[in-house]
Amino acid sequence: MKFKDDKKRQTLEEKRITKVSFELGVPEDIVERSIEVLFKFVKSKIEQTDLKQEKTLSEEEFKKQIPIIKIPHLGFIVPSHKVYLTIKKRQK
Predict the structure, then answer these.
(1) Residues 39-62 pLDDT 10s
(2) Most-buried pick from 17, 30, 44, 63 (CB within 10 A)?
(3) Do 20 and 37 share a domain, yes or no?
(4) Which ranges of the chain would DSSP assign to H, the alpha helix?
(5) By residue range, what is the domain housing residue 71?
(6) Does residue 4 belong to any structural domain of this protein?
């Protein structure tokens, strides 16, 4: 017979934070705050551009205005003009 565990089950995100905390020997709140800082940085970079304008940007204009975001040790976030066009079509 299984006993019901009164403890709240961890979400996948919480499990990942716990694992990183354990592997690096860093408190969980530090890992969590580091992730928040990273996402705030990415969000600020994305929000710098005004994609809500009526005019659809050409591929050249898009590449000039939309930054490629480098995340150290993880890689790059490279915006796609094709996805941008799809989103613009849905808006109309």
Answers:
(1) 888 788 777 776 777 788 889 988
(2) 17
(3) yes
(4) 12-24, 28-47, 59-65, 81-91
(5) 50-92
(6) no
